[in-house]
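Section 5.1 Outputs to date
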Amino acid sequence: MDIKLVNRGDTGELIMSGDLDTKTSRDADMIFSQMADRFKNLTLNMTDLEYISSSGLRSIRNLYIKITQNGGRLELTNVNENVMEVFEMTGLAGLLNIR
């Protein structure tokens, strides 16, 4: 997995590619935590994210909790069909702001 940051003032955009799975979720957790401390609002651009596992879902859920506790907003954009299906099956689609 690769994550690139685009700084948009008080909003950060993380452009994600590859797989968010057991192997990569620990690194993602570290990056997500740093970004939640740095930006009030955060966008996860998933245009090139091909796969997400339960570990990846947990990372995103934890990021959502941290951002909202800080009074911010988390958005997910460009979610492909396969990843969206996982969000829907787990019920996270109803919790997350996906556009």
